[in-house]
Fold this sequence. Notes:
Elements: H1 3-8, H2 11-21, E1 23-24, H3 51-67, H4 75-89, E2 100-104, E3 111-114, E4 118-122, H5 123-128, H6 132-147, H7 150-157, H8 163-175, H9 182-192, H10 196-219, H11 226-241, H12 247-251, H13 256-267, H14 279-291, H15 295-305, H16 313-325, H17 329-342, H18 347-359, H19 363-376, H20 381-393, H21 397-406, H22 408-413, H23 415-427, H24 431-444, H25 448-461, H26 466-486, H27 489-500
Parallel strand pairs: 2-4
Antiparallel strand pairs: 1-3, 3-4
Region (Disordered): 492-511
GO molecular function: metal ion binding; metalloendopeptidase activity
Keywords: Hydrolase, Metal-binding, Metalloprotease, Protease, Zinc
Amino acid sequence: MSERLFVRATPTLVRWLAGCLACFIVMATAGAARDYQLPTIGQPADAYMSPAKEDKLGRQVVSELLGRGMIIEDALLSEYVNQVGNRLVRHTSGNAGNFRFYVIDSAQVNAFALPGGYVGINAGLLTETDNESELAGVMSHEIAHVTQRHIARQIEATSGMGWATAAAVLLAAVAGGGDPDAISAAVAAGVSNLGQQQTNYTRSHEYEADRLGIRTLAAADYDPDAMSSFFAKMQRRARLYGTQLPQILLSHPVSTTRMAEAESRAADYGAIDVRESPQYALMKERARVLAGRQLSDLARYYENRRADGRPAPALDYGYALVLNRLGRNQEAADLLRPLARAHPDMLAYRLALAHTYSRAGQLATARRQLDAIRADFPDSAAAKLDYARTLIEAGEPGAARDYLLGETQLLASASEAQEMLARAASQQGRLGEAYYRQARFHEMRGAYAPAINQLRAALQTADLNAFDESRLRAQLDQIVRACHDAWSERECRERVNEDARPASTRPGSAR
């Protein structure tokens, strides 16, 4: 599947096929306490898309999203959404280790599930929810799309459309303009172009995901009524907006029947001791700031919301993040210090304060803060990455390198750790190691073409010792094989050649 497929795929074809493929959110609800005669998953879908091919397709799309900057790459926010997602997955038939949750850099209220357990939540959806249970309700619906293998089943129902065509369609949607909502728009448009039989089939998947999702919500000690309350809020917004409906209602209309079913199924569970994380309110504001385009608008938003003088720790946190980005570090520190003192168990406050000290050039103070944070939160990848970053900024690349090399699990799971290790090695003059780590960074993100080109350039031009040369050649062979496996030999070769071209000559570049 190559760039030529993207060019040949007409908008009509993309919309039609995309509607047959993707399992995008409806403001879902979930399952119930009684048995709803859910189908057995497996054949005949396996004949068209095996679990291995589903994972391959999901990884391809995520790689494209990362390459186009559509995913918010923030370790703390990522930790949070994956904690919520994994809490839900533990109460399903899925394996938590097979799921990955991402925050999409879009203000639209939407979310989606890709084959293989890759789930995207738009920043706009997170900021639109009122509590963690509403967020969990959307996520549990998307998780059900994955565990029930709806894309494979829809392919099977669509006259045997092959998995390669499925991949071409989803990747064409990603390639269609670089808009963070390109996939969502393609899928939303595609549903309306389907025949009635396929539309009914897709609708049955949504109800199935609702039934399973509400069951998962209750089992995970979230409020099973949260999804029906979210439905109601979306309907109120629809009346308010008139013809300009929220994006989620354009792609997945919410009917009174569906909302009534959500309420009915939630009632099956009775009173539940709901457990929600205090992190939710802070991560909601973090997503708002990270997805914000105009800092001045964000600053006014928080100033207006905080004007009544009532205590609002989450708003103070969000405002401090904006102040940091505006370079008003002293004001940010004044907001964060009392929050961090009063809530030492809240990682977000303490990391934000350490980050503020770092931005203000108080690197020794930031490092002391991060030493204490790592002791209190030993499993936090965000804390570890911030610590390594501070060491590099303090001009201690050797200490940063030694620290990162000792964090083997972090290096295996966080591509950012590989990039920081490359920076540290480069500052020490360890060019062979710097090339090796930067290639690992690209490889972990599925960006095989830049990894291959970088290694080729290093082997041709860099002054390498025998060990580094041998290691880089072995790495190059390994990444070439991974590229062939992820795409195909021909597609890999085309991508490598395309990546090697000057940016100004690539298709779609400004001239």
